[in-house]
Amino acid sequence: MKALLRLAFFSMLGLMTTACSLLEVKLESGVVPLPQDQLNMRVFSRDFSRSFYSQVEQTADQIARADLDDEDNIYLKSNALMWKIYSEQALQRSIFQTSPVAAMVDTWALTAQMKDFYETGAGKELFGDHQGLAIETSKALEAEFERTAKGFLPRGDFNKNREFIQQYAAAHPIMDMTFSRQSAFNNWLAFREINEFEAVTTFGSVPEVMSDISDRMAMISEQMPKILGWKAELYAMHSNINADEVQATLVSISETSARFQQLMAQSPEMMQNLAVDMRRELSPLLQQLSDSTDDKLAQLSVERQALELMIKNERQALEEMVARERVAVAANLDEISKHTVEVVFQELTKTLKSLILYFVLFLLVVFFAPLGLGVWLGKRMGNKKVNA
User: Fold this and answer.
1) What is the C-alpha separation between 186 and 193, in angstroms, rounded?
2) The model scores a pTM over 0.85
């Protein structure tokens, strides 16, 4: 009976589809397809996302594997996991915008903001001695995006867009590892003096819209298990869960996901119903996991702030100690200078006294001695004359 009902339903659906063929032609003919340059922007942005995921994940894993014997390595691992989680989520928000132009501009701005965040911004000390790896990867991603965008944008438009991106990244920096940010598209419209009602004139034809949705679903299904795994690992890192158990769970999730994709390809209808049931059953668990992860991240943020405050207080105490030592050295220097001046003046006084004495003796010898000798000789000569 069910088979007959299903056959009748599909027969009526075919008749309705045939009867409404004129309406379908009318609807399809009224849709304006995307311009070729915007289609190129969409394809380029989606291709760039794969390079972004690969380079960020490789660099973050390289940082997390460094200094395995260091007790503070959990800090590097946490930051590396948060970089992968939040940067990829931010890229998905940027790249999955409806307008290809908006996606291109916002993704470009994201690469510039991430580079400034790790090079000179609030995240310039998150990875310690390995900070250069994050800076190098961020610069490479920005350069790769600019190099490809330069290939399909006119030279004048590319220079104007790059000028806007530099100004926007400097005025709207990323402040923390959550990569909280707003889309740069509205600011770009104001910079280029484009009316927001004229910015998006079409969403594309029906095949283009369906292709866009298919790309989104494929990328989400590919990235969501990894992001959930990283969040679980981050949660386990700051709780009492065994890391081996988490790793085994992640492997099981990966294998289940692979079998799930094979089954989905074989039976789309059954998998659609199964997806609805799984969403209903897993939503509370995922929400609980997300809330617990957010709590741990908030706790980690509070601990980081406390550590920064402690470092700041120690730095202030060190500066005060150096200032006190400088004052004490200056005081000792004044006393030493005063004593030196006194000793110099005493020695100078003795030297002057000796010089005066020698000068008086010199005068006596040079002037008075010949005079006295002459007087004595005169008196002697006078006495001789008198006796004669």
Assistant:
1) 10
2) no
